[in-house]
Design brief:
CATH topology: Growth Hormone, Chain: A
Order of helices and strands: HHHHHHHEEHHHHHHHHHH
Structural class: mainly alpha
Number of helices: 17
Distance between the termini: 45 Å
Largest sheet: 2 strands, antiparallel
Number of strands: 2
Strand content: under 5%
Radius of gyration: 22 Å
Strand order of the largest sheet: 1-2
Helix content: over 70%
């Protein structure tokens, strides 16, 4: 069974493997910044509201450019956009590190903004690229492998961060380098530059020529907007909720349980290993149990874990609180991520071929918009002295609404699929009767 599982991933087209490596190397940088940057900012003297304000800026660029990019890339090669992302992300990462170190606030804001644009280029283009270059037989494997790059990058980033923190410093003669947050981020940023190599090695066939009306009004005719809006509705709820929690989980464990950046990185590595394992199992689980189990049931269990983790803040003075919070966090993230490949495949199948580039762009744009709003809401709630558990319970409520909307979407998709299949039966019956 395991042999067949790994072979299904090994047999994916070479260009998909190059994309996966590109995503992995850029995710190394992204994950390292999530694990370490907030704590680096706090040590430089920035408050929680200021940190939330900086984080919100990385979603602005994606929000502005994702939608027009989704329209523009329809029928165009995507390699140039991958190459641009591979250049922008390391450069802006370096700018963030130095601007935070020097406390140059205008440059911090500009760097966060441009960094978000670079990551957006990769995200918007990767999903349509996978769909273009796979078939119905192997698209789930490609999407699952793409989703697993985040967890694999978390494992490697966590190991690197924890290892360097344990080493503490390196001396070469009179020259000493201390492995503090700033230098750790520099090391991983340098490793992430290798993304350019994989971007250059991506090859792609010429996309289908699509005739497009150049007027703005043609957008209404070119896409199925009712279908697109229905498809995006659960993502809006999920992404707003995620934006209130995911960027600030490290602050939660640091403030409530006093976990250091190194300790949280180890926790992230353990969690990421489970995410990676669960993601690889998604194709076989989805094919055996369907979208209902892989998305709705799995996310429901994940929401329960989030609620348990949040409530442990109320019992912080008890020894069991940290252990339960850690267990809940370790299982919450893999379960939530496990639903992503299946939900992406569901949405791409639900909206149809002509809407796929746009749904990818809009989902990225809405995700960025939601996270921007969420970062601002988090900033506002912290100023009002809301506790972390209260904010995380709001996330749980939004997740529940999103999960219900996913259930309704799956139900409609399955009904439509049955109706489409039924329409082909009369012809078969007629032939049989003759």
């Amino acid at each position: 069974m395991l042999r067949n599982l790994f072979r299904s991933y090994w047999d994916l087209p070479r260009m998909i493997h190059m994309l996966i490596m590109l995503e992995f190397t850029l995710s190394l940088i992204h994950v390292a910044f999530i694990l370490v940057l907030n704590i680096f900012l706090r040590k430089q003297g920035f408050s929680d509201p200021e940190i939330a304000s900086f984080n919100s800026l990385r979603f602005i660029g994606a929000l502005i450019f994702a939608f027009p990019l989704g329209i523009y890339i329809r029928g165009k090669k995507l390699k140039p956009f991958f190459l641009l992302a591979a250049i922008i992300v390391p450069i802006t990462s370096a700018l963030i590190i130095e601007s935070v170190h020097n406390e140059t606030i205008p440059l911090i804001k500009l760097s966060f903004l441009l960094w978000g644009v670079g990551m957006m280029l990769m995200r918007v283009c990767s999903l349509p690229f996978i769909i273009r270059n796979t078939t119905r037989d192997n698209s789930t494997e490609a999407l699952s492998l793409s989703a697993s790059t985040w967890s694999l990058a978390t494992i490697f980033s966590g190991i690197i961060i924890s290892g360097l923190d344990w080493i503490n410093y390196y001396s070469f003669g009179s020259w000493i380098i201390y492995f503090n947050e700033r230098n750790i981020l520099w090391i991983i940023t340098i490793l992430g530059i290798s993304a350019i190599i994989f971007a250059l090695r991506i090859t792609e066939k010429a996309p289908d020529n699509i005739q497009k009306d150049s007027t703005v009004f043609s957008l209404y005719k070119q896409y199925d907007w009712k279908v697109i809006i229905k498809a995006l509705s659960p993502l809006i709820m999920i992404s707003i909720g995620a934006g209130l929690t995911i960027p600030f989980v490290n602050l939660f464990f640091n403030s409530v349980f006093h976990l250091s950046a190194s300790e949280f990185s180890i926790l992230g590595s353990i969690t990421a290993f489970l995410v990676f394992t669960f993601s690889l199992l998604v194709p076989s689980i989805r094919k055996k149990y369907g979208y209902w189990f892989t998305i709705v049931i799995v996310q429901a269990i994940s929401i329960c874990c989030l609620i348990v983790m949040a409530l442990m803040e109320l019992y912080v003075n008890y020894s069991f609180a940290l252990i339960i919070a850690l267990i809940a966090y370790i299982f919450r993230q893999p379960l939530m991520h496990m639903a992503h490949p299946a939900s992406n495949e569901l949405l791409m199948n639900y909206v149809g071929k002509r809407n796929q580039e746009l749904i990818s762009a809009l989902s990225s744009s809405l995700w960025s918009a939601s996270w921007f709003v969420s970062a601002k809401v988090f900033e506002w709630l912290r100023l009002l002295d809301f506790q972390y558990y209260q904010i995380f319970l709001i996330t749980a409520g939004l997740y529940i609404i999103g999960n219900i909307l996913f259930a309704l979407l799956i139900r409609e998709y399955e009904i439509n699929k049955k109706v489409s299949s039924a329409k082909s039966f009369p012809l078969t019956d007629e032939i049989t009767m003759d």
